[in-house]
Amino acid sequence: MSNRMLILIVVANGLIGTADAQKGDKSIAAGLLVGLPENDVIYEDNRDWDYGVGLEGVGQLNFTDRSAALLQIQLTRFSGYSYNFLDPNGPTRAPTSALSLSLKAGYRYQFTKSGFFANLLAGVETNGLYSSAALGIGKRITVKEIYFLDVGIDYSGGFVRRYNIKAVFSIVRRSKID
User: Origin, by domain of life (predicted)?
Assistant: First the structure.
């Protein structure tokens, strides 16, 4: 079993609480992420990436108590190495970094009132212009009815294919009053 899968299981099983999403609820959340690129991948620009750190913002509009539309923006700084395979003394590598901005829209399904959810998103990512998609799972932890913390992991393609481990905290949450 890979370390990434173990982290996923610990995050998913270690959390308890309930989530009470309602039709018409709107929220904006922001937080941190750590990107773990796929191992041993040298991209077409002769760079590979060790890790990334960044910020994420998410807007959510609930259609029902289990379905929601999402709009996500991520800003991530990746660090790694640049390779020069044409050096007459043999291949060389040097430290490098890159900044990536990602904008995606998608869908969230909440499985139960316990707050476990799955996301599917698609969009674009910069540092060039790449199409990007993400599939993730997570858990919403409600704090004092008006705040929440979403923690989870996703697999994202685009500029750097990676696993993102992330946590976002609600900044604004508005419930629809019938």
Answer: Bacteria
Segment 80-124, tens digit of pLDDT = 888 877 878 878 888 888 899 999 999 999 998 889 999 999 999
Residue with tokens 């108590």: 65
d(CA 153, CA 178): 34
Q: What is the pTM of this model?
A: 0.78
Which residues, in sequence order, are CB contacts of 176 under 8 Å at separation 6+? 22, 23, 24, 25, 26
> What is the amino acid identity at position 162?
R
CATH number 2.40.160.20 is the correct assignment for the domain at 3-174 = yes
Are 22 and 65 within 8 A, CB to CB? Answer: yes
DSSP element (H, E) containing 73: strand 67-84
Q: Which of 52, 127, 46 is nearest to 81 (CA)?
A: 46
Give the Cα separation of 173 and 154 in Å (integer): 23
Q: How many CB atoms lie within 10 A of CB 19?
A: 19
In angstroms, rounded to a whole number, what is the distance separating the alpha carbons of residues 76 and 102? 8
